[in-house]
UniProtKB/TrEMBL annotation:
Chain segments annotated as transmembrane: 176-197, 203-227, 239-263, 269-286, 417-436, 442-466, 728-746, 752-773
PROSITE patterns: ATPASE_E1_E2 (PS00154)
Organism (species): Prosthecobacter dejongeii
Pfam family, one: E1-E2_ATPase
Cell compartment(s), UniProt: Cell membrane
Keyword check for NADP: no
Cited Gene3D superfamilies: 3.30.70.100, Calcium-transporting ATPase, cytoplasmic domain N, Calcium-transporting ATPase, cytoplasmic transduction domain A, HAD superfamily/HAD-like
Protein name (database record): Cu2+-exporting ATPase
Length: 798
């Protein structure tokens, strides 16, 4: 077992090619900045929490025009209700999405940064929602300067999150709170009867009425959630896990209502109805809250334009305005939304999202720019649309969505048998008791008691806990789950398919001879950083990764498309970065070569070991790439893959067709570009790395941070652990249901017994889940301690 080094800033594994104790130049920069500005208390507050790595690309210059416009609109909107004489001093409140927060240390740091800006009044950071709310005096506070200050520490602000998902989450949260109040009310007014309150007591009827009203309101507010889902699934010809829950709720409520009206105490389950609904809603809310929290950790990629500026117009127009013949402009760093004809003299674009090739492509006046190409030059482009936005490839890839839920045929069959048995046993027991002369009331009590105690209430509470514990374990691997049901699908994986560029390899080529940077003086470092900071060419991105952010010259950078970048400083020296015979790129001052750079595609840390581990588990590993055959063959050879285990020069449609034809029902697909989007939609499950330009992580089942691929086997191990925990819960639930159903058939299950057994069974199942995960964590800690002791004894640590 090899020794692993973890980043001093974020805590993720350090790639093998770095020797400074950090995973990337971004973490180096933020680590040094925190110490230089006296904010290193951040690390004390952070503790052992892992942070998202600070990608150097996220520290590049960003376009904040949208923020200026948002601040202007909000200021104009909010001051309309303020008297005119006070409008100049009226505070403005701004809501923003926030990326990069993970712990209380982040909150503390953001508050300290905010306090340094004049005019700032209040700041509120919501870690769970991934949001930032600032209140400020518009005459004094510079919103863009604050955003840039946050960016220097690795935090990115963006437009507010889409309100629809938040509305659904908050709606379920409100249901939980309201049903909790109803459950407490129903229990409080049911307890006196359990403790022997006589029926002739003056307020006994009032107590029953309050319990009945509380249960009715709980049914309307919370029970309807499960009943609607069960009904919709039945309309589609399927059975949902909510179907037996809905059956139990309806049976208990109708029985209680009938017992209350008929004066039969043995049929009153009002407290059970309210408490059961509350517990089931709590479990469902916990599941969805964890998933929504991970979905909000990342913002949509800013390189994908929300609007464009038409030539001859000053205001922006939505992408839907693009039609053949419409002329518009594209800013540096933005994606080409539709297929276009170039009107500018020349352009530099990257097609890595389309075919996986990272090399810069040069286009001249009149040539075609495909939809989805990334403008990597330093100046804006003028183009003419050749198609509408509705017909564009980028729109189709952006709007494609993976199915929200996968139908589990095995679960449907199990539920069908389960429900059939429960209903048959309930009705048969009622008929037997009535046939034996026990009376209709007692026969109904037996039937309803069986329906009530056989509800999968334990599963409804324990399974969400297992989901949460599994998600927490995945987060320690740098993986964030975005979809419910992922763990079950992962247990069916028999094949792992990787994209190459940006997935198996790092997003940018690695500077092979980084030692040449050490020979540059401070002036050369500053000039080189200025040249590469505003350029998205692969060479520029790689050099920016190597040298990191810092001081810049104020001189304008000139670009000769296809040749290189140049600038002239205040002292009259000409600095140039471009092609050269001595390396992949040469850096010159006044024509004299200062450094010749060589680059190579670098595999992610532990890729070779991870592929070997996956193959040892009996999984098939495959590469599907749009890159050239020679480059894919080289990477495949390093991973030890045979010729039949990789494909090259594939289009997005060919990737999707291959997955659909060969491995749709058992494939984990890991990719990062637009050319993987269609394959994502047909694979069993899919994941994506978080790169400098987000795309697929917004539609993946999970996304991962850091530079290592080791998480894949760890994620599959977590899925197996999740399955073990749920099987333990299922085994207990079966045993519990057998015992309680038999007791109900014999007439020994009263409402009091049901009210006691229901929460008790939930406690037992929660304990089973916690014990399963805790046992594995203890084993991992013991193995780590043994490994550490052996290395200390062998002199492996100093």
């Amino acid at each position: 077992m090899s020794s692993r080094v973890f980043c001093q800033h974020c805590g993720t594994p350090v790639p093998s090619h770095r020797e400074d104790g950090f995973c990337c130049a971004g973490c180096v920069y933020v680590h040094d900045l925190l110490h230089q500005q006296g904010l290193d208390h951040f690390y004390d507050l952070k503790g052992g929490v892992s942070l998202p790595p600070v990608s150097p690309q996220s520290l590049r210059e960003r376009d904040y025009e949208w923020l200026q416009e948002l601040a202007r609109v909000e200021a104009a909107t909010q001051v309309t209700s303020v008297p005119e004489e006070r409008r100049s001093s009226a505070p403005v409140e701004l809501h923003l999405a926030l990326q990069g927060i993970s712990c209380v240390g982040c909150v503390w740091l953001i508050e300290r940064v905010f306090s340094r800006h004049a005019g700032g009044l209040r700041v509120n950071v919501d870690v769970v929602q991934g949001e930032l709310r600032v209140t400020y005096a518009p005459a004094l506070f510079d919103v863009v300067a604050f955003a840039r200050d946050l960016q220097s520490f690795g935090y990115l602000v963006g437009p507010p999150h889409d309100g629809q998902a938040k509305k659904q989450s908050s709606g379920l949260e409100r249901r939980v709170g309201v049903c909790g109040a109803f459950a407490m009310n129903a229990m409080a007014f049911s307890l006196p009867a359990y403790f022997g309150m006589p029926a002739e007591f003056a307020f006994a009827s009032w107590f029953d009425m309050i319990a009945a009203v509380s249960a009715t309101l709980a049914m309307l507010v919370g029970g309807s959630y499960f009943i609607e889902k069960a009904w919709r699934s039945l309309q589609l010809g399927a059975l949902h896990i909510d179907t037996p829950i809905a059956l139990g709720i309806i049976a208990a409520y109708l029985g209680s209502l009938g017992g209350w009206i008929a004066g039969v105490p043995g049929l009153k389950y009002f407290d059970f109805v309210a408490i059961f609904i509350f517990l089931m809603l709590t479990g469902r809310w916990a599941q969805q809250a964890a998933v929504e929290r991970n979905r909000r950790k990342l913002m949509r990629d800013t390189s994908i334009p929300e609007s464009v500026t038409l030539l001859g117009e000053e205001r922006s127009r939505p992408l839907s305005a693009l039609q053949p013949g419409v002329r518009f402009s594209i800013k540096p760093g933005q994606s080409i939304p539709v297929a276009c004809r170039l009107l500018s003299p020349q352009a530099a674009v990257s097609l890595e999202w389309i075919n996986g090739e990272s090399e810069s492509q040069h286009r001249l006046l009149g040539q075609l720019l495909p939809s989805g190409a990334l403008h990597i030059g330093t100046r804006g482009l003028e183009v003419e649309a050749l198609e509408s936005w509705q017909e564009s490839t980028l729109r189709k890839l952006l709007e494609a969505r993976r199915p929200g839920e996968f139908r589990d045929r095995g679960l449907e069959r199990l539920l069908r048998v389960y429900l059939g048995v429960v209903v048959a046993v309930g009705w048969a027991s009622a008929v037997v008791w009535w046939w034996q002369g026990a009376g209709m009331a007692l026969a109904l009590q037996v039937m309803i008691s069986i329906f009530v105690v056989s509800c999968p209430c334990a599963l409804g509470v324990a399974v969400p806990l297992a989901e949460d514990l599994a998600a927490s374990r995945a987060e320690r691997l740098g993986v964030f789950v975005r979809s419910l049901g992922l763990w079950k699908r992962l247990t069916r994986v028999r094949r792992v398919v990787f994209d190459k560029t940006g997935t198996l390899t790092l997003e940018n080529p690695v500077l092979e001879n980084a030692e040449v940077l050490k020979d540059l003086d401070e002036a050369a470092w500053t000039a080189l950083r200025t040249l590469v900071t505003g350029n998205l060419h692969p060479v520029s991105r790689s050099l920016f990764d190597a040298i990191g952010p810092g001081a810049l010259l104020q001189n304008e950078v000139q670009e000769v498309v296809g040749q290189g970048l140049s600038l002239t400083d205040a002292g009259g020296h000409e600095w140039y970065l471009g092609r050269g015979q001595e390396g992949d790129a040469c850096f010159r001052r006044d024509g004299v070569i200062l450094a010749a750079f060589r680059f190579r595609d670098e595999l992610r840390s532990e890729s070779v070991e991870e592929v070997r581990r996956l193959q040892q588990r009996g999984l098939v590993v495959q590469i599907l790439s749009g890159d050239r055959e020679a480059k894919v063959a080289h990477i495949a050879a390093r991973l030890g893959l045979r010729r039949d285990q990789w494909q090259a020069e594939m289009t997005p449609e060919e990737k999707a067709a291959w997955v659909a034809a060969n491995a749709q029902d058992d494939t984990l697909y890991v990719g990062d570009g637009a050319n993987d989007s269609l394959a994502f939609d047909v694979a069993l499950c899919a994941g994506s790395p978080v790169a400098g330009r987000s795309f697929l992580e917004q539609k993946a089942d999970f996304f991962f941070l850091g530079h290592s691929l080791r998480f894949v086997s760890g994620l599959l191990d977590t899925a197996r652990l999740h399955r073990r925990a749920t099987r333990c819960v299922f085994a207990f639930s079966v045993s519990y249901n057998v015992v309680t159903v038999v007791a109900g058939m014999m007439g020994h299950l009263s409402p009091l017994a049901a009210a006691i057994l229901m929460p008790l069974s939930s406690v037992v199942t929660l304990s089973l889940v916690a014990w399963t995960f805790k046992g594995v964590q203890r084993k991992v800690r013991e193995e780590t301690a043994v490994s550490f002791t052996k290395r200390v004894a062998a002199g492996g640590y100093s």
